[in-house]
Amino acid sequence: MNRRDFLSKAGISAAAVAAATTVNAPAVMAQKKFRWKMVTTWPPKLPVLQEGCERLAKRIDELSDGRLKIQVFAGGELVPPLESFEAVSSGTVEVGSGAAYYWAGKEAASQWFAAVPFGLNAQGMAAWFHGGDGLKLWEETYAPFNLVPRPGGSTGVQMGGWFNKKIESIDDYKGIKMRIPGLGGKVVSKAGGTVVLLPGGEIFTSLERGVIDATEWVGPLHDLRMGFYQAAKFYYYPGWHEPGTYLEYFFNKTAYESLPKDLQHIVDSVCMENEHWALTQFDAQNGAALQKLLNEHKVEMIKFPDTVLSALRKLAEEVLEEEAAKSPMAKKVNESFKNFQKVVGSWGSISEQAYYNSILPKV
To answer: Whole-structure pTM over 0.85, yes or no?
Structure first.
């Protein structure tokens, strides 16, 4: 049976088919296209962090067939790094990237979505966001600012920082000027230090010129690139202040909700894809960078004394309660975090912790 006979028997005229084709083709061609701008807190071309933002934009462009294109600006290229939150909130641009503890002045609760001293590691944070109510609470926290947050991946456990004096007791923090954000910074302040909040691009110069005495940043991969070994003597670990620091993407809520549902799903899916990608990059590259710092640049790496870690932990508990009391949202988020950490920790102590203690080589 030829096509004309088939259409005739089916009661469908060739003209009807042609008309349907004529209507549908332009409908596809007429799909609305979106052009967005993204600002970040990261220096240009910074591996994983700024690189991840470029990757996000590229993948969204690919998966949307060009319907949503995002132009990415590093910190300071369009707005100052620490003004990214306000730029996206106001709708000046549609997307931002940073770490939620940068916005503690906006809402104290934001700090828990980046890093909690002696808190959850990367795996635990991911579990809280996607298996618990962490992401739901994050969305609730950002909603008053016309923002939609999405987890952007974790650095894993960070290093403790670069110091120009040894930390042999908790008293050695007294008077020290340190670049350290978030809840960890408040712990250092409680220990007697002076906290300085600087974007990444300003840290090296400040450390080199003595504006600050110490800094934390991320870990070996980025610390090597930033050249901190040229400006500080001692490299401390572990990163008690940031045991599983999470990055973030945040979208202007009005802009996000203006997208068709399929584009919203693409945005969400690529954020989760990047979330996985970021941690794999840190895990894959930090080890080689650490060996280069130790073997080529002869960095002196020191573990924080147990007595110092114990004292810092007590101070951290005080800080968490003080910060939680600053707003109803912070109290709500802190309670969720504490309860989730108890559940995850009881399992982790007989799974991950026991396993790694038995197989990890000595540095």
So the answer is: yes
